[in-house]
Amino acid sequence: MTTKTTAKTKVNRSAKMKYISLTGLMAAMIAIMTAYICHIPTGVNGGYIHFGDSLIYIAAAILPTPYALAAAAIGGGLADLMTAPMWAPATIIIKMLITIPFTNRPAKIITPRNVIATVIAYLISGVSYFFAEYIIFGSFGSAFLASMSGSLIQSGGSAVFFIIFGLALDKVHIKSILNSQL
Fold first, then answer.
1. Whose CA, among 17, 67, 76, 162, lies 20 to 30 Å from 95?
2. pLDDT tens-digit readout, 61-105
3. What span, in angstroms and rounded, lies between the C-alpha atoms of 3 and 14?
């Protein structure tokens, strides 16, 4: 192996370790924000409204897709394990799915695509949690309306927090800082 190849391998390993560290940090913040900060129980089915999805959106706009998927799944899954364990399997899948519409490619977090992605994430979340609720509880008719309205509040609030957090992070050029470190 040449010196040039060895140096490139070390850089790749270093970047991967930094991405893994940032993924773990994002997962922890997602779990805490979801489970404890602005955590509002709703209904009798163990569901709750939270704004942890805003940090999932931030992770999806900062991290490469595989890492964003992991941060969302781990953070959302841990939050449900701490607060409403019956939802954890569905949450792990749904939180991964809501990262997909976002992009981490531009130099900024708040882009037209990422703002539109919050609407797509709402649709994915609302419909997916409706099906999860149907599978868990077997209720169909009123569950759709309840699921979509709860998701609208959660996703809408998360979209607002995402835009506020994203604009603040864009103002300090966080993506440039992270990219120079990776």
1. 17
2. 999 999 999 999 999 999 999 988 999 999 999 999 999 999 999
3. 16
Q: Considering Cα of 59, then 60, then 61, then 62, what sign does the dihedral take?
A: positive
Token pair for 74:
């781990």
Please name the residue that has the structure tokens 């709703």.
Answer: 42
- The residue with tokens 């773990």 is 24
Provide the residue type at 44 as one letter: V
pTM score of the predicted model: 0.88
Phi and psi torsions of 167, nearest 5°: -65, -40
Amino acid at residue number 105: R
Strand partners, 41: 48
Taking CB atoms within 8 Å and a gap of at least 24, the contacts of 163-171 are 163/110, 163/115, 163/118, 165/54, 165/55, 165/58, 166/57, 166/58, 166/61, 166/108, 166/109, 166/110, 166/114, 167/109, 167/110, 169/58, 169/109, 170/108, 170/109, 170/110
Looking at the DSSP bridge assignments, the partners of residue 48 are 41
Helix (H) or strand (E) segment spanning residue 41: strand 40-41
